[in-house]
Predict the structure.
Amino acid sequence: MDNHSAGFGKTLLRIRKNKQYSQQYMAENKIHQSTYSKMERDLIEPTLGNYRHLLSRLDMSDEELQYIMNDYNHSEKEQLLTAFMNLSFNDVPLLQEIREKALKYLDMHTDYIITDIVHLTDALIILAITGDIADARKHVRPVWERLEKLDGWYLVELRMINAMLFLFPIDEAILISGTALAQIQKYVNHPFAGKIAISLRHNLCLLLLKNGRYAETIIRIDELIPAAKEAGSYRHLSVCYLRKGIALAKTGNPEGQLLIDQAFRLIEAADDQDFKANLENEYNLLKE
């Protein structure tokens, strides 16, 4: 399998010995023992069927095995992807750092997703420095032109959609997020799918709020609040209360300020100072 490094066999051998498994146990009449021995010596690579069998015998996922093979770290690509997905979009120095690392990666590899990250960081840097959303949209256009041609989106494409959602006009963003959420339903039992879905829905609520569509904002946030409570996520719940409170306040409803105050009390109770700063910044931007 060409997606594994030359150290696959040595890693397989080390894990097998640590688990005190025999070669016979690993092969389990599915792989000829001489073939298995050659795999451990990196003389041959496993077929896809054999690779899946070996993962099953090791009681490991592909992700865990790759992590171990990379000296208990994520691959360079995964580190880039994780850094981009976790960044604060107004952090220009970090955006520039990710962009430079992505460009260096592309000097050695051809990769659609990392190319997308370069386009998206360009757009986000422009947006943070100049606020020119029309110019920012020019940079994400190649990403969307690639993604909209696909018959379906997988998790990595869904993460890209989420990252660029707020760069679309509101009506287009609603349609795209609806399609994305429908795609995520295929991953209902996947551990990361729920996080992507919640993030998409939060981002859409923010877009609706920024576009003055307060009634729609309130309806969608009311759908998110039970999930935040069930998950015990005070951060998600505080964001819901803040955004719903602002939407209510914009319509002249006095209950809005009560919800805003409740959002900040939640964060105060958790003593989460970093998130409190983010929440205050959002409040100051949205209340105008």
Observations:
- The CA atoms of residues 39 and 61 lie 18 Å apart.
- DSSP finds 16 helices and no strands in the chain.
- The chain has a mean pLDDT of 92.
- The radius of gyration is 23 Å.
